Amino acid sequence: MTTQHPSLSYIENLSVDSLTFPTLGGVATPLDYYEEGTFLATYAGPWAANTNVTVHYVKVGTKVTLQFPAYLNAFSVATIITVSGIPTRFYPKTGSFYFPAVVIDNTVGAVGALEIKAANSGGPSFAFYNASFYAGGTGNFTVGQVGVQATSVTYITV
What we know:
Layout: E1 19-20, E2 30-31, E3 34-44, E4 51-60, E5 63-68, E6 71-74, E7 81-84, E8 96-105, E9 108-117, E10 125-129, E11 145-148, E12 151-156
């Protein structure tokens, strides 16, 4: 049983330009941007044909979380896995970010990398590399079944 004070009412929809929360010793900044949804991206590289995938995202202020889906298919050519179709607003403004990612090379999963580059760092680009990337190798895939496991990354765009 739910009771409500007669002088109170429920807010069904609330629209504000921004919210500012109190801090302990810091400077309060407004939370003025929130967005979530999906977009279509393309995995390309070691397969005979590219594949379209649905990437989920959440953007709060300047922080972005992207969730890349898993994909596995037969190897065709030695190369990295590039990801295109990422909306411009999700690219970092400067620098490069590297995240560990489980990649499959010759049906074996190993820790590789997801690299995100800003335009001023040789990008803009998103790419998955195999485990040889960390050992100073090319990061190219070699043989067999090749792909990536589902990967989620969070980073700042400024």
